[in-house]
Design goal:
The protein is α/β, with parallel strands linked by helices. The chain has five helices and three strands; from the N terminus they run H-H-E-H-E-H-E-H. The chain has helices at residues 2-8, 16-19, 35-44, 61-70, 98-112, and strands spanning 24-27, 52-60, 73-80. It has a three-stranded parallel sheet with strand order 1-2-3.
Length: 113
């Protein structure tokens, strides 16, 4: 949670002003608890966004419950009661580096304008 707060907080990677009045699609490879959903909801609480759409291929029942509360729209392909961990549901677990992810986010945001 602390790591997410640093990313999203003041001086973090994401400038809230660039998201203002846009529909936001929050994508994850899986949600186990919904903690990251709560962090996103806290971040967007002070930003006037359009809709919040949450998309994931797999999530726990607990996470889907959080999605129903936080999101305007959700898309989850599989809900599981006994969620093990996200890596369990994938054959290939190649994760881009933090810098690659940050660069992709910045590229997308800059192309909005």
């Amino acid at each position: 949670m602390s790591y997410l707060n640093r990313l999203l907080g003041q001086g973090g990677l994401i400038d809230p002003g660039t998201l203002r009045e846009h529909d936001i699609i929050l994508v994850s490879d899986g949600f186990k608890h919904g903690t990251s959903l709560d962090a996103a909801a806290d971040f967007f609480k002070h930003v006037k966004i359009g809709k919040l759409v949450v998309v994931t291929p797999v999530a726990s029942v607990q996470a889907v419950d959080r999605m129903h509360i936080i999101a305007d729209e959700l898309h989850c392909l599989s809900v599981t009661e006994n969620y093990i961990n996200t890596n369990h549901y994938y054959d290939v677990n190649d994760i881009p580096s933090h810098d690659e992810i940050a660069q992709r986010i910045n590229d997308i945001v800059h192309n909005w304008q």
